Amino acid sequence: MEGTKKHFFNDLSVMLGRSMRHISRSMDTIITVTIMPIGFMLLFVYVLGGAIQTGTDNYVNYLLPGILLIAIASGIAYTALRLFIDVQGGIFERFHTMPISRSTLLWGHVLSSLVSNALSVVIIIIVALIMGFRSPAGILSWLAVTGILALFTLALSWIAIIPGLSAKSVDGAGAFSYPILFLPFISSAFVPTESMPSVVRAFAENQPVTSIVESIRALLSGYSVDNDIWVALAWCVGIVLVAYFFAMRMYKKRV
Predict the structure, then answer these.
(1) I want to staple 216 with a disulfide (CB 3.0 to 4.6 A). Which of 26, 41, 45, 65 is the partner?
(2) Cα–Cα distance for residue pair 59/206, rounded to 1 Å
């Protein structure tokens, strides 16, 4: 059993290193992922922010959690794309002829997604600080925010594995991210849900992005997170489990 675990982690480190080398050779993907969220942040803070009533004097503080989720949703499209290229290029068939743990082929892409999206998040937070973002949050609150963002990234990365394995074209591999990118706009990420029509408000308050945004916002502002954090964690863990199940099922069929 111990030998099996060691074998798995050795294979995983190799697959992760391989994926990270691909990312390091195309750093423009990280830049591309950060440009759109930063553009939204600039637009909403300096152009639209004055007309939006959020009950806070610093709109960038209110806006930042949603912008971070948009950045992550943009980044996972590249996870699906990189996996699609591997599948279409036949590299998986070559790996399957080797004595390696097959699930590490997928985990390598998932973990590299965590690293690349973390870099994007750091860049966006630095820009937000330049724009006036300030947080009284302590170390524990920042660690909690980091954990929620990592879990959200993990959930979306496993979703990305499914089209990466099943898509018939490059466009199809990345198209799944468009509905996910749209979700923050129908949530409390940009405006309070109280200002929305009843039907839209009902959807906004019961979709995963709102609870995640509210949890991160409360943690960064030093407020009590109430039940939002448990709802957010339940959404993220549930999505991870369901996406992992279907991704591995599809992978086994391809194998």
Answers:
(1) 65
(2) 23
